[in-house]
Amino acid sequence: MESTFRFMEEQKSPQNRESKEIDLRHLFVTLWQAKLSIILAVMMTLLLSMLYVKALPSLYQASSKLMIGYSQAKMVAVEDVYNFDTQAEAYFNTETEILRSERIALAVIHQLDLQHHPEFLRKPIAPWRYWWQVITLGYSSQFSAANSPSEAQILRVFKSRLSVTPLPKSRLVEISFRSWDKLLAQQVSIAVAEAYIEYHRSSSEAATDQTIGWLLQELNRLKSALQSSEVELQLYREQENLVDQEGILGLIGKELQQLTTQQLEAQRIKSEASALWNLVRRTAKGDLDKLTSLSEIQRDPMVQNIKRRRIELELEQADLAKRYGPKHPKRVSLTGEISRVELELRSQTDFIISGIEKSYQSAVAREAALSESLRLAKVRYQDLSRKTTRFNQLTREIESNTRLYNTFLEKFKEAEAAEGFNRGYAQLVDSARIPESPIKPKKAIIVILAGMLAGILSVVFVLLKQAMSRTFATVDELETALNVEVIAEVPKVKVRSNKWLRQGVHPWLGEPLRSLRARLQMRPNRGQVVLFTSALEGEGKTSITIQTASACSDVEKVLLIDADLRRASVSTYLNYPLSQPGLTHLLARTHSVSQCIHRDNQLGFDVLTAGLIDRHSTSLLASKKFKLLLKGLRQHYDRIVIETGPLMQVSDAVMVAPSVDATLLVVQAERTDGKSIENALSKLARMDLEISGVVFNKVARNKRAYDYDLPSVHLVERSPKVIPLHEDKFRKQG
Fold it and tell me: What is the pTM of this model?
């Protein structure tokens, strides 16, 4: 079945490309191919890093441990006066910052005379200067002299090398100093701790002196205030004649309570008397019976007796009236008696009313007298209360001044007692020792890390280069990306020169080339005339062409035509003289066929070299003569293998392709980019020419795929003698 493959201009979508799985074997092969470059990069990096660390000066560090807040047994609580809370975290942080302060640093600088110490009068030199000294001057020094630094510069360098680190969950602080001088590192670490202790000792003495002076001043002021308040209280007591103001105030209070009770009772009696008197006055204007009906009058015994007597007389008068006339002496006498009784009742009633009036007036007078007495008692109580309040104020002032005076007197005595007491705010727990080994640089670690980094960067660079490159390493990548068929996968072989081309088919290329031959035999006309070209030069097109002709010559009669009329690559590779008659001579009809086609017994096939090359030679490939030549040669050879120049640089292949049975594009693995291949195939497609397939050249060798062919492949030494074909023999065969 005929298989025709055309180039598809449509590229695979980016989404499908991204979804392609990573071929781990391909990555390993890529790294394996670049192993020499990676190893070289790592070795160079290791060498340079060793040279670098050799030129670096060694930096030493010495550390001391200081305990902050350490104190001996307290004699007195003087820290309350200083207001130092050693248990607070803020205090610990403050003391740590004091250790880092410029005051401590300057004290150490002046104590150790660091202004003139060599540590601050030199500076490290660059590594290249170190090795320049070693090479040119024969000595090595890692330092060079520096200008005399100012105090600010020394302070800045000193603080940059000093490290104060609080240890977790403790009151310990680690004081470290880094220096190129071992002894100086130890001295500075200890000196910083001692300077801090001295700072606190001096500040403690100054604080004690300042506190004693302030307490003495406050004591004098409080003593004067206390004396003044006592004098003022005594004068006030004498002025107001106060003896027992608390007792007097209590008596007046009781009197106010009694007067208030009496006044309330008098007001009640007055109200009752007033109501009775008003009732009596209103009733007195009426008749006697209404007046005597009042409860206050009716309850009087005399009124009751008189009224009883009058009732009896009135009953007797009523009885006489039944028996006697109005003028009867008994009735007249009884009437007079009744009148006397009524006069007596009136008289008694008036007496009772007069008594009620007097009671009312007496209640009013008593209530007024009690109100006045209560008012005067209140005035006396308020006056005495004001005096008592002022007295209490003066008393409290004396008590307050007394307490303050006693407190400050106690603190003053404590401060005097603690003035000569050496209180320890810090203690040096561990003194620094002379360091035995440097902390920087970690030469072994630097070299190892540099080598590892170089290896990682080299691998990343190789993989990144492979990922960014549009070249192809496997057949699947090429076929998937460009939609072309690879009909032969030729492995990469290592050779030192082109002499191996005359030794027959290379052991590694035997099976791939036989497979190529079989694929050509499946094409129309058995692929009798096959054209080899490439997108770019240098892709191994010439060696593939020669090896294919050699592989076909085992079973077929083969002719190799060098149609590269620019470079004559076949002649160059097979060491033919450029002056040897060839294709251009034959097409120009200056030589016969027998003079131009040569039999190479060493290779086992016939060769038609390029011949004389000039700028007009390429036009011969487009002539009818070339087509007639191929038509004639088809009758005498089973296989005709033609090589032309690269598609992207010359148009020779485009002119030859219409006359051949198969056009093969040679693509070198991991070299030819996809864009060049696409342009080459597009160039053929624009001329309505077909690409029969791709020969994938110099593919990373897989031993499991190619080693199987080795035992049956042997290179055959052939005679290097080239025998030209005679024209009469050519005619007899034709």
Answer: 0.48
